[in-house]
User: Fold these one by one.
Assistant:
Number 1:
Amino acid sequence: MKKNKISKEWIKRQRRDIYVKKSKQEGFRSRAVYKLQEINDKHRIIKNGFSVIDLGAAPGGWSQYVIQKFRNCKLLSIDLKEMEPIGNSYQIVGDFNEKSSKEKIINYFKEKVDLVMSDMAVNTTGNKNLDSVVTGELSLEALRFSKSELKPNGFFVSKIFMGSTFNEIVNEAKLTFKEINIFKPPSSRKESKESFIICKKLR
Ligand SMILES: C[S@@+](CC[C@H](N)C(=O)[O-])C[C@H]1O[C@@H](n2cnc3c(N)ncnc32)[C@H](O)[C@@H]1O
């Protein structure tokens, strides 16, 4: 499918989408905020006072949710794209895969954190298999980082695509965490291969 055809269909779909409308009415920057809200309603991963790393944060729906709904959270957001500031959170514009980005995150917190959440995804190429493989690599990178940077009772949440990397991520997560859940929030589009992996308590 041609790129401009994808864009036109994307615009049409966005206009019809109830979560897009709701996010505009409620002042959130993206419909993605409702996925995190639904994940948290079911799995209780965020609490007041938590230290939180938001990987692939732009345009900022997830970060807004943490800052607006919870008190005294220390939040760091990173994305390849620049985004408008959110409260007193700290932002890095950069590639999470780079060693220097990880060092910046570690230097900012100087201690282990409560929650690492990743909604990182590559820009869609139109090739669903390729997108799912590359996004799977991002998820694995986030999982490995969370293993070294989370507190023992910490939480890890990541976007994960049904596809060739799914089992690899789930198996590695099982070796790393005591509790694993796979959850597709109601606001995640049905036609999308996306789900989320929610992990608790490091082994
Ligand atoms: C689905 S969007 C995130 C939406 C966000 N959770 C929200 O609530 O607004 C995925 C983001 O991942 C980012 N991303 C992809 N690869 C990345 C990487 N290597 N490092 C940092 N961010 C990355 C993209 O730039 C994009 O903004």
Number 2:
Amino acid sequence: MVENIIVVGGGIVGASIAYHLASNGAKVTILEKSIPASGASSKSFGWINANAAETKSYYKLRRAAIFDYLDLCERIKLETAVKWDGSLWWEDQGQDLIDQASVLAEYGYEAKIIDAARFAALEPNIANPPEKCIFGQIEGSADGAEMVRLLLAEATKFDAHVVAGCHVSGFLRKGNRIEGVETNFGKMRADKVVVATGAWSQKLLECAGINLPMDNKTGVIVHTLPVDPVINHLILSPDIHFRQDNSGRIILGEIFSGEGLNEAKAESPIDFAQKMLVRLKERLPDVADLTVDRINVGMRPVPLDGLPAVGVPNGLSGIYVAVMHSGITLAPLIGRLVAQEMLEGQDAGALSDFRPDRFS
Ligand SMILES: Cc1cc2nc3c(=O)[nH]c(=O)nc-3n(C[C@H](O)[C@H](O)[C@H](O)COP(=O)(O)OP(=O)(O)OC[C@H]3O[C@@H](n4cnc5c(N)ncnc54)[C@H](O)[C@@H]3O)c2cc1C
């Protein structure tokens, strides 16, 4: 029997789940309150990595996600979205950097410390090479909006439809079973509903009595106008991180773990962008005409403990949750595992530490 599944949320996580469900035989309807990729996915830095995971199982999940990206790149054309540029990381320095490298080495991650001379050879246009940095050879970057476009285009080659402007406000429920959703267009029935609504998930899930506490964080990413190719890797330094995309734009933000705008100082996005531009020019002194083109203020979807929340919530059926930060990295893997769990009833061991029940 063909399963009729509603995916709520047209970001990279919803798009990947929709693609994997539809390509495995489900009939899928994606309901998006605005337009696809209008949330965090289009405002992301887009670093694909397993670099600074909080736990070993989270490291393993993210490392596996890099493999899944490579597999997905074999199956569908993602060249306009994905670049395997590798990263150069020295957000932390001194002993902290060495400790970080040792943890990664213990995990078996393909990353190693390089010195200033090697850095200068890899990135001749960047001023003041760090004494040491971690070279993450297998890492890459993805344009979240383009990923959503490509994944949804692939999904619609199977039995999938996207409805934009469709706001889900609640669930149709019979006992402990979810049987569809309430929307601004009325009731819609389905065999199963996936909630992939990123930073908006806590409130929506409360309508089904599901507790998913979130600690969402604002993040700001600035895009310059395109310039000639000047950077070869993702650069993650103590006061700025940046990369160059396929079109030549430099995509930049403050330190990766930073929160973006300084709300205590009522910093405006424009002041923030100018501050970032000054830092970028210090790193790239020979690049003329670095001009801010776009400032994206996004909300990072972060479950309270920082880890993904993926699975069927306790005591319910017919509903599946998929909410996470690092969704650009995780989306291809999560999409595959969610489709496997939903369609084949197979529990994915890789997800066992990330179930939403841990909050109930
Ligand atoms: C500044 C910034 C930098 C980041 N950098 C990285 C990075 O380098 N690497 C990385 O892996 N991750 C990064 N992230 C995180 C990553 O972008 C997110 O984890 C990912 O985009 C989440 O995707 P999503 O599909 O879950 O959510 P979203 O992209 O937010 O999509 C959710 C969608 O659901 C829709 N929606 C919400 N509520 C409803 C409703 N009730 N009805 C219908 N539709 C609804 C929204 O409109 C939205 O389109 C970053 C995020 C930010 C903001």
